[in-house]
Amino acid sequence: MLAYGDCVEEEVLLPVPHGQHVFTLPKLLRPHFHQRHRLGSFCRIVTRSLNEAYGEVAPWGKPGFILFVQTFGNLVTFYPHTHALVSDGVFSESGAFRVLPPIPGTLLVEQLCHAVLDYLVEDEMMTDDFANMLLTWEQSGFSVDNKVRVEANDQKGRRQLVHYMVRNPFSLEKMEYKAKQGIIVYHAKHHAILKRNF
Description:
By secondary structure, the protein is of the alpha+beta class. The protein has one domain. It is built from five helices and nine strands; from the N terminus they run αβαββββααββαββ. Helix 2 packs across helix 3. The longest helix has 22 residues. It starts with a helix and ends in a 12-residue tail after the last strand.
């Protein structure tokens, strides 16, 4: 994985500012994405959302980005979400890059919400009525976190972001073997639903 991060930094990413975008689904909808093909559809939805959001600001160019699907949370529970390493700007057809202000997370959330619900209705995983009810909720459960940014000259920062995005579900540092009980305990942040941190 370290080699992959180095390869992406050296051969894929250009030395321009980048940001990390984390696209998250509501708990209620996550079981629908247990099937791998739906995770691919989720990535295509994220791709459209990013292209449309940047296209509204700069229709003459396109952002550069790489998507990484993760299906695990802190305590290795099923938690499908997508990390995107996105250029903080767009490339024109000639290859010229223009820096843009960060896309507001609220715009991306709105696009994500509508696109995912439309997809699930079309795939007959929910009814139109249920999708419309979810749209009326004040807290939809959809989120896009795009606070993490790296500067154009921060080669190490881009490499660290890629390493984070392709990391393993398990961290050896969080595992503890209790020989007397014959068990392995996995420590993480406190889990709000399970009410524990192991």
